[in-house]
Every structure is written in C-alpha cells, then in structure tokens.
Amino acid sequence: MSDRFHRAAKDGYLEVLKESTRRDCNQPDEDGLTPTLWAAYKGNLEALRLIVGRGGEPDKCDHYGNTALHCAAAQGHMSCVSFLVNFGANIWSLDNDLHTAKELAAMNNREDILRYLDTVSAKQTTTDPKQVKKLQDRALKDAEKRQKEFDKIQRKADKKREEENAKLQKERQKIEKVDERPQGKLVWITSCLGNKEK
C-alpha cells in the first residue's frame, strides 16, 4: 500500500491529491487514518475540501473511533470543523472512549470550537430531536461495535505476543544448554590424566 495520498493530505499537496480516487481518499493506513482524517488532523482545509469533494468520507473513523471532526476539534482547527459540520458530518459520532468531537474540544481547551459545536448541537436538537436521537443511537451502536472489534484485535495481538515470547524463551533455553560446559567432567578428566602421569 502506498502512503502517497496520506502524505499529500498531511502536507497539503493539492496537485497530488487531484490524482486521488474515492478509494484513495478512504484508504486507511496502519492506524486506520485515511487521507481525509490526516487533512483534518493537520488542519489543511484546502486539502480536506478537495479530498471530501473526491469522495473522502468525513464520518469514516480510525481504529480508535476518531472521525475527521474528532481530529479537527481536538487539534483546534476551527475552519476544518466548520467545513465538516456544514458538509454534514455527524457531530454525534463517538470515539472508542465514547467521546464526541465537542467533548474532545473541551478536553483540549478549544473554547471557540466547543462553543461552536455546542451551538450546532443545540440547534440540531431543537430543530429535529427525533433525527438527533437516531444519530446518537447509531453513534453509540457503532462505537460499541468498534470497541468489541478493537478488543478482539488486542486479544489476538496479546496472544500472538505471548506465543512469540514463549518461543523466544525456548530458544534462550536451548542456547543456554549449548553454552553450558560440563565443568564436572572436565575436572574429572583432568584429574584422571594427572593421576596417570604419576
């Protein structure tokens, strides 16, 4: 897998991003970050606009449940947050720790973003409470599903690490047995040879 578009999103190289396809814009790296998420995380608004315009999904999340809105809010990129909200990103999405983007903004002392998202959430709740409830329920269900998947991946990684450690321990024991010199036999042979010479 090439990380060409991920790097372009991080650094804001628009000419490279103009060559990307929908698939490229949504391709996760080893941490689950897509070019869409990287552009939001780094605050590259023009790159984010271009990527989303080419099919990058702002509500797609990394392995930890962070969406583009989570990334932009936590990092304090107000222009990206505003763009994502106006584009229709789900402000109710939850990360694996069940935090919304608004909560991440609060935890990271992003007061302007916190006020903005608070205003947007209040407006959405007042305008269409049923739709908000659906979005919140779906966000919780998705987060719980991701948590289970993440726990499964963690258990699998832990089991693999334990197996590798056991294998390494066996290898060490073999090496230690080979390195052990039979000290007692050597002394006995030397003493026997010494007695014959007398």
UniProtKB/TrEMBL annotation:
It comes from the Eukaryota. It holds the Pfam family Ank_2. Residues 130-177 have a biased composition (Basic and acidic residues). Gene3D superfamilies: Ankyrin repeat-containing domain. InterPro entries: Ank_Repeat/CDKN_Inhibitor, Ankyrin_rpt, Ankyrin_rpt-contain_sf. The keyword Repeat applies. ANK repeats lie at residues 31-63, 64-96. Keywords: ANK repeat, Repeat. This is Uncharacterized protein.
